[in-house]
Specification:
three-stranded mixed sheet, 14 strands, alpha/beta, five-stranded parallel sheet
Length: 294
C-alpha cells in the first residue's frame, strides 16, 4: 500500500479533506498520497511562523548552524531513500536523483557556514578630509516570515535553496512544494521537524493554486522566493505588494563551440546540456554558436 505523507503545518502533521495522490510519470503507479492544505491551514501556518519568528530572530549563529547541521546529517543518513523517492515521483533517472540528493546535503552544509558569517561589515568613510577617521557599521537583521515556492524539476535541491538560507538568517518559512512531486520535501519535513527549530518556524505544505496564491498577496509575508517560469515569476512580482521578491527563473542559455574545441566532447556535452531531463532544467542549452570553420 502506498505510504501516506501528511504535511507539516504550524509544528504538527495534518491532513485535509482534499487528498493528493502522486503518481510515477513513467508507469502511472501511485507513489504515495498527501493532502492539499486549506486556507485555514495556511492561516495557522502564518500565525505560527509569526510567533516563532520572535524566537528564530534571537537564535545565535552557532544555534542556527547547529540546526542546519542536524538537518544535513539527517538528509545524509536518508540520502538513498530520498534519491529513490525523487526518482519515483518525478521520473528523474536514479543516477541523477542520487546526484540531487548529494547536492542537497551540500546545500545544507553551505547554509551551516553562512549561518556563521551573516553579520555585516565595516565601511570606511574617510573619503574626504572632513570625515577623517570615520567609519560606518552595517548589521543584518532577519525580516520575518518568508514564502517559498519551489519547482518540480529539482524537488529537493531547489526547495533547500529556500529552506537553508531562511534558517541560516533567522527567518521563518512557509514552503509550497510542487504539486507534481511534493513527497520528497514532505519526507525532508520529518527531518526538519526533529532538528530543534521553534514550533511552527517551518511549514511545508502542498496547496492548490488558489490557496498558494496567497503566498504572493498576503502582506504578512515579508519576502517571496519563487523558482519557476519567467511568465509566472514576473506576474507574481507585479502582484506581491511591498514585500521583497527573489526570483530564480528560466534561462536562455547559449553555448559557444570555438575553432579549437574538441568536437566529439563538445557534441556530447551540448547534447547532455540540451536534453538531460527532457530539457526541464533552467540552464539547459537552447542555442549553439559554432565557429564557421567547424
Amino acid at each position: 500500500m502506498p505510504k501516506e505523507y501528511p504535511f507539516l503545518c504550524a509544528g504538527e502533521w495534518r491532513r485535509s479533506d482534499e487528498s493528493l495522490p502522486i503518481t510515477n510519470p513513467y508507469n502511472g503507479e501511485i507513489v504515495g498520497t498527501t493532502w492539499l492544505a486549506s486556507d485555514r491551514d495556511l492561516d495557522d501556518a502564518i500565525t505560527a511562523a509569526e510567533t516563532a519568528f520572535a524566537e528564530t530572530s534571537r537564535l545565535q549563529s552557532y544555534e542556527r548552524a547547529a540546526i542546519l547541521e542536524r538537518i544535513a546529517d539527517g538528509l545524509e543518513s536518508r540520502q538513498e531513500e530520498i534519491a529513490r523517492l525523487i526518482s519515483l515521483e518525478s521520473g528523474k533517472p536514479l543516477k541523477d536523483a542520487r546526484i540531487e540528493a548529494a547536492r542537497g546535503v551540500f546545500t545544507l552544509r553551505v547554509g551551516v557556514e553562512e549561518a556563521k558569517r551573516i553579520g555585516g561589515e565595516v565601511i570606511p568613510l574617510d573619503l574626504m578630509a572632513s570625515s577623517r577617521g570615520r567609519f560606518g557599521i552595517t548589521r543584518r537583521f532577519p525580516i520575518g516570515v518568508i514564502a517559498g515556492i519551489s519547482p518540480f524539476n529539482f524537488p529537493l535541491n531547489l526547495a533547500l535553496h529556500k529552506l537553508a538560507p531562511a534558517i541560516a538568517s533567522g527567518n521563518t518559512l512557509i514552503l509550497k512544494p510542487p504539486t507534481r512531486d511534493p513527497l520528497t520535501m514532505l519526507a525532508v519535513a520529518e527531518i526538519v521537524h526533529d532538528a530543534g527549530l521553534p514550533r511552527g518556524a517551518v511549514s511545508i505544505m502542498p496547496m492548490s493554486r488558489a490557496v498558494g496564491d496567497r503566498l504572493v498577496t498576503d502582506e504578512r509575508f515579508k519576502l517571496l522566493s519563487f523558482t519557476g517560469s519567467p511568465d509566472v515569476g514576473w506576474d507574481m512580482k507585479a502582484r506581491a505588494g511591498k514585500k521583497r521578491v527573489v526570483l530564480e527563473l528560466g534561462g536562455n542559455a547559449g553555448v559557444i563551440v570555438d575553432r579549437d574545441a574538441d568536437i566529439a566532447l563538445a557534441a556530447s556535452r551540448v547534447r547532455a546540456g540540451a536534453f538531460a531531463y527532457a530539457g526541464q532544467v533552467c540552464i539547459s542549452v537552447q542555442r549553439a554558436y559554432i565557429h564557421h570553420s567547424r
